[in-house]
Amino acid sequence: MEQVVKQVEDGSCELMNRGILALVSSIGCMSAGSLQTLADAMHIPHLFIQRAPAGTPRSSCPPTTHGQPDDYTLFVRPPVYLNDVIFQVVMEYTWQKFIIFYDTDYDIRGIQDFLDKSSQQGMDVSLQKVESNINMMITGMFRTMRMEELHRYRDTLRRAVLFMSPASAKAFITEVVETNLVAFDCHWIIINEEISDLDVQELVVKSIGRLTLIRQTFPLPQNASQQCVRNNHRINNSLCNPKDPKAQTLEITNRYIYDTVLLLANTFHRKLEDRKWHSMASLSCIRKGSKPWQGGRSMLETVKKSGVSGLTNLLEFNDNGTNPNIFFEILGTNYGEDRGRGVSR
Questions:
Q1: 171 in helix, strand or coil?
Q2: What pLDDT band is residue 339 in, cutting at 50, 70 and 90?
Q3: Spatial separation of the C-alpha atoms in residues 44 and 286, rounded to whole Å
Q4: Which one, out of 81, 97, 143, 212, has a CA that is 20 to 30 A from the CA of 39?
Q5: Bridge partners, residue 125, by sequence
């Protein structure tokens, strides 16, 4: 991991020597922390787009010096609210006993707040990691558990929450259904910002009983004519048309990357009209004795004040450098044995 962080630092430093407008990173928390330190030292705006590994749900990055006057990092993706959302949903369903499944790529520390709140409410919550070889995991359970233990385990599976990637969730549901570990009276919740329409269809087909899906969504303009035109900027139809297959499979992270580039283009246009702006010509990034960019603070403030309407609806930053705009969608199937059932919001 240290080698990866060093490569990120070296690559960023090389870009700075060429003269850059800002750093845009789509990486994990650890590498982002290293870039944040570098950006602060060089006075370079750093727009961080958090990316979780292998489509697994995001966990909040560890606390940094975020919010300090000399902080040059802006957080493009909104804070992680999965703890709050799943707690509200579980409370609404009045669950008192359930199990949480999470895949190997998920940072279980991300739901510590949810576990604390659940404990305070007297809920009985179990945790189980789902191994990458799901078939071997299930087979091992049948081999080692006694019959009465399997019956108790089946009862526990009646209520479950999955913090998993869509691919892992599909494979896991398929396995437990085929081995009769779940019955038609089960109710499972899958929560992940990254669940596409195709994922929804496949998860509904593979599951039995009742299924609730929670994902991030981006409200469309009420005026259909503005669907692909935002603030005089025309977006490619394959990206903005919700019926287009490419738009349906576009990762959320890539949506934020698109809007970040659009935001920086608009900001650069503004700065070109500012005669007092210090260009990047004098910037140098050297390991010892680096010279920070005099125009960096002005550039950062202009980015924070700009805002743009794009694929993520509205990208803007509040005073502490975070994007406050996030919406969740809750989808649910009907309770029953009809494998062809639909999904409602």
A1: helix
A2: very low
A3: 14
A4: 81
A5: 98
Residues in the chain: 345
CA distance 95 to 279: 58
What is the C-alpha to C-alpha distance for residues 254 and 35, in angstroms, rounded to an integer? 20
Structure tokens at 75: 């957080």
Report how far apart, in Å, the C-alpha atoms of 24 and of each of 12, 49, 66, 71, 174 are: 10, 7, 17, 15, 38
Q: For residue 214, what is the DSSP state? A: E
Q: Which of 115, 123, 116 is nearest to 97 (CA)?
A: 123
For the ranges 13-17, 126-130, 262-266, the maximum mean pLDDT occurs at: 126-130
CA dihedral 11, 15, 18, 23 (to 10 degrees): -170
Which residue, 245, 267, 257, 266, is CA-closest to 312? 257
Decide: helix, strand or coil at residue 247.
Answer: helix
Q: Which residues contact 232 (CB under 8 A, 6 or more apart)?
A: none
Q: pTM (2 decimals)?
A: 0.86
d(CA 203, CA 176): 13
**Cα 200 from Cα 32, distance rounded (Å):** 31
